Predict the 3D structure of the following.
Amino acid sequence: MNARVEISSQTAVREPLITCVELGHVYDSGRGRATALGSISLTVDRGEFVCVLGPSGCGKTTLLNILAGFVIPAQGVVRVGGQAIKGPSSERGVVFQDYSLFPWLTAQANVEFGLRMAGRAARERAKIAHDLLGLVGLPDAGAKYPFELSGGMKQRIAIARALATRPSLLLMDEPFAALDAMTRSSLQAKLVEIHCQEQPTILFVTHNIAEALVLASRLIVMSPNPGRIVEDIRIDLPRPRRRTAPRFNELYERVARAIGLETAE
Amino acid sequence: MAFGVSRHSVAGIIGTLAFFGAWEALSRSGLVNNVMLPAPTTIVQSAWELLVTGELPRHLGASLLRAAIGFLGGSVLGVALGVAMAQSPLLHGTINPLVQMFRAVPSLAFVPLAIFWFGIGETSKIFLIAWGVFFPVWVNTYIGVRDVSPLLGRAAASLGAGGWRNFAYVVIPGALPFIIAGLRISLSVALVVLVAAELAGAAFGVGYLIQMSQQVFRVDQMFVGLIVLGGMGFAADLLFERAVHRLLPWYGAEQAGQKGSQIERASGRPITR
């Protein structure tokens, strides 16, 4: 139930983008050891939009941090693009819940940051940043500083920043959790649009079932103590997705049961 | 609202004029000795004389040069050591007790010692100013670098900025609000130490002007010295604020937001302790 390995003899090239084998992690806190991640095996193909859903403590953020290279796993193997993860890299873009924009840089300079680190020419950077600002729907915000932007706008800039270096994987850690409902649903729509256009592989962590069902092409449900995968569902709902569709509600019920919410709203 | 503000500023002007008017009247009334309390008009006249004879510019120039060199030296050392100690726990462990010990001694108490060691020339004054400036800058730089958001560091690392580039592009700009707060406190510290050092013995400087004027009963010139020092402090702070606003347009807004309370706490420490 936890792996959908596509093995085809003629297309050995088409290996999955992410491969996790028996991945486990334990946090050493002052009062003892907490198993954040049991033993997880998982593969994700290029172009997939994976939502990882679960209650707090289920290890979903730990999984994301391992993939980002922020956390070194205590056990198991994890490879992205066929290579072991040695640390953070611009190959794996990250969007954080609190935006984490550099307050001393303008929106444009924030988007250009990764390109600057990669030593790309100023004109090329400006062009890419301009295109990305357009893509996230903020074509005129380039000269603004983060403090001049609303939460939703900041998160759009953060998405543009993470996309600028064309990472093969986009990791998103509850990026819309701090936004109001209206802004959240408009950003969800924008993200679906971006995924359709650019086809990046996305791993999106959330604890919101409806959000996951609106966004994902595949939903991984996790459960705590120890953190493990309990459901791996392909979401074949047609887009744009309507929250009132019967199939949507069916899936909602199934996921709610999987995470232990017996009576879904 | 606009009416209220203008009424306040009118009240301010009236209050100020009344104060100086009363002062002028008191000095001229014969109720007090007008050598001890010279009239504002007499002070303005003395200031003009000191200005045209070139005496005041010479004193002011000497004071400004000392303050600038001392401020620069103390700030550079403060930033350097603050950054180094925040980056290296070993270095921090080694010299933190020493720095804390020296910081506890008011810098003015070092004036006699500095004069004994370095004489009444420029060296002792620059040393004292640098000494006074060093501590607030060091404390704030240390706190600023230590407390830079680890999330920003992660964000930068995932955009390809590791190692020294993370330091140069994230840690230093992230610590800048604290460093600036430290520098600003040091600006007024520099002025205090400057005057103390000049009063204790000098051949030039605004502090020296006040000291000498006292010896020859020129209270009017003492007032000129006080006014010049007030002007120096005011101008330095204003210029500093303008420069920061110009160079770092995001700074004020950040301060008003989430980081504001942190800056105040951090910048409050060197003064209160």
